[in-house]
Amino acid sequence: MAILIDGKALAAKLQGELAEKTARLTEETGVVPGLVVIIVGENPASQVYVRNKERSAIAAGFRSEVVRLPETIQQHELLELIEQYNQDPLWHGILVQLPLPKHIDDEAVLLAIDPAKDVDGFHPLNMGRLWAGNPVMVPSTPAGIMEMFKAYGIELEGKRAVVIGRSNIVGKPMAQLLLAKNATVTLTHSRTHHLAKIAKTADILVVAIGRAKFVTADFVKEGAVVIDVGMNRDEDGKLCGDVDFDAVSPIASHLTPVPGGVGPMTITMLMEQTYEAAVRSVK
Ligand code: GUN
C-alpha cells in the first residue's frame, strides 16, 4: 500500500513556521506582509478559495484584504484598482482570482499586476523567469508539490517524471520545477497518444487533467510516486481527484489523497510567496 502524502499536516506545520517567521519580521522591521485578493462576480468555488486564502493570511499574521467586485465591472476599472495596489507599499501580494467574467481579458489583468507583487506567479515575466531557470514568483500548486517531495525525501534527480495536464497554473510550471531538479520530464495532455503507456514509464507522476478518477492502475508503474492535483465530484457527488485512489494505492509507493493532499499546500505556498515578497521589499 502506498504511503499517504499528508498535505494537510505538512501545510499546518509550514503555516505554523510561517506565523513565527512573520512575527519575527514584523518585530525586527515593522513590516507586516500584506495580501490583497480581488474577486469579480459570484463563482461559488472562487468564493470558497478566497475565504480560505483570507483565513490563512490572517492566521499567518498578515494584513489581509478581500475586494469583492460585481460581475459587471469594466476592465479599465479593474486595471485602475490593480494600479492603486501596485503603488501602495502596504501590499506585497496582489492576487486576482480566476476565472474572470468573459468581457475581461485575463492576459491584460495579469500583465497589469506589478511582477514584484504577483504572488500567483502568473505574470508573463514571472512565467518567463521560471522557464529560463531563474524563478522568483512560482505558481502555488506546483510549488506546494515540490515541498511535498522535499518533506517526504523523494529524490528527483535523474528520475523520469510525467506530468498530465498542460495548464499555465499547474502543468507547465510543474514541468519546469521538476526539470530544475534534474528530472527527465515529459509533459502530456488530453490529446497525447498512448497516454497510459507513457504515464506507466514514470517514477514521478503528477496528474492535473481535471477528470474524475482518470488515472487508473494501467497508468502507474509499481513503486511510482503519484501526485493528484484533481478536485472533482464522482458519480455519488463525493469529492475525488483525477486518480482512482483505490485502484492506484496498492501499486504506488507514495500517493496524495483528495481532499487533504495538494489542496492545503497550495494556499500555504501562496502565503510563503507573500512573506518572501515582503522580505524582498525591505532589502
Ligand atoms: N483559480 C483557481 N486556482 C487559482 C489560483 O491559484 N490563483 C488564482 N488567482 N485563481 C485561481
Automatic annotation (TrEMBL):
EC number of this enzyme: 1.5.1.5, 3.5.4.9
Cellular component, GO, one term: cytosol
Pathway: One-carbon metabolism; tetrahydrofolate interconversion
One Pfam match: THF_DHG_CYH
Reactions that this protein is recorded to catalyse: (6R)-5,10-methylene-5,6,7,8-tetrahydrofolate + NADP(+) = (6R)-5,10-methenyltetrahydrofolate + NADPH; (6R)-5,10-methenyltetrahydrofolate + H2O = (6R)-10-formyltetrahydrofolate + H(+)
InterPro entries, A to Z: Aminoacid_DH-like_N_sf (IPR046346), NAD(P)-bd_dom_sf (IPR036291), THF_DH/CycHdrlase (IPR000672), THF_DH/CycHdrlase_cat_dom (IPR020630), THF_DH/CycHdrlase_CS (IPR020867), THF_DH/CycHdrlase_NAD-bd_dom (IPR020631)
Chain ranges of the Tetrahydrofolate dehydrogenase/cyclohydrolase catalytic domain: 5-120
Single GO biological process annotation from the record: tetrahydrofolate interconversion
Annotated positions binding NADP(+): G165, R166, S167
Keyword presence, Phosphoprotein: no
GO molecular function: methenyltetrahydrofolate cyclohydrolase activity; methylenetetrahydrofolate dehydrogenase (NADP+) activity
Subunit: Homodimer.
NCBIfam families, A to Z: PRK14179.1, PRK14186.1
Function summary: Catalyzes the oxidation of 5,10-methylenetetrahydrofolate to 5,10-methenyltetrahydrofolate and then the hydrolysis of 5,10-methenyltetrahydrofolate to 10-formyltetrahydrofolate.
Family the UniProt entry places it in: Belongs to the tetrahydrofolate dehydrogenase/cyclohydrolase family.
Name of the protein in its database record: Bifunctional protein FolD
Organism: Streptococcus lactarius
